Every structure is written in structure tokens, then in C-alpha cells.
Prior knowledge:
Blueprint: H1 8-16, E1 21-24, E2 31-32, E3 48-51, E4 55-64, H2 69-72, E5 82-89, E6 94-99, E7 115-121, E8 131-136
Parallel strand pairs: 6-8
Antiparallel strand pairs: 1-2, 1-3, 4-5, 4-7, 5-6, 7-8
Amino acid sequence: MHNKPxxxxxxxxxxxxxxxxxxxxxxxxxxxxxxRPICLECGSSSLEWTEMPRKGTLAAFTCITVPPPxxxxxxxxxxxxxxxxxxxxxxxxxxxxxxxGVQADKPETIRIGQPMEAIFMDPEKEGxxxxxxxxxx
Length: 137
């Protein structure tokens, strides 16, 4: 039973346990990832935690060549771009995550609709949260 209140902190704690958690509305069945306390469909505030599948499909993506400072510090930039995307999870819900295992310097090789699977990357600095990413499956 998951009885933590919905928050970014709780979502990050579940990621550290290698779980993707969302919220499901028992009234209308809508799923939200990351979780939210109020249903955008029917307005219910009785949402429940639900563990989401680790598989989905790539719905949208972008390859980033001019990164924010935190990603530049990890070696990303014009000569080493990285990819982020929107993944539609099996069972509903969409979320934004890093996309690994693709050629970010050749975006024409990345396909919308391709199957993806979650990977949980260890934080590179003490005190950072686990990084949720997806790769082609």
C-alpha cells in the first residue's frame, strides 16, 4: 500500500527504488505521471498511487546541442548532444525523460513510436536524485 502524499519528493523516492509511480483517479480512470493530487479530467481529489509499467513508446523528442550548465558540466554540448523526449507509458500517462542509447548527433535515426524501456541512472553527485531515462527496447 502506498500512502505517501503526492509530491516531487515522493516521486523521487520511488525512482530511487526503481519504480515509476503515478496517480490514478478511481472515479474516471485517468492516469498522471508524475503523480498529481487532483484529477484534471473530473476534479476528484481521491487519487491513488499506482505503479506504472517500465515500457512505453516515444511520442516526441528533441536533441539538445546547447545545454544548461548542469548538463554542460557532464560533458554535453555542440560536439556531444543529448536527447530528451516524451514517453507514453503502457497503461497511460506520459512523462518527459532523458533518452539514452540513441544517436543524438543524428536525430534522423530516432523514430517517433519506437518502443522504449525505462532505465534508472545513479546520480552523479551526492544528494542528487536518481535520473529516470528511457532507451530503445
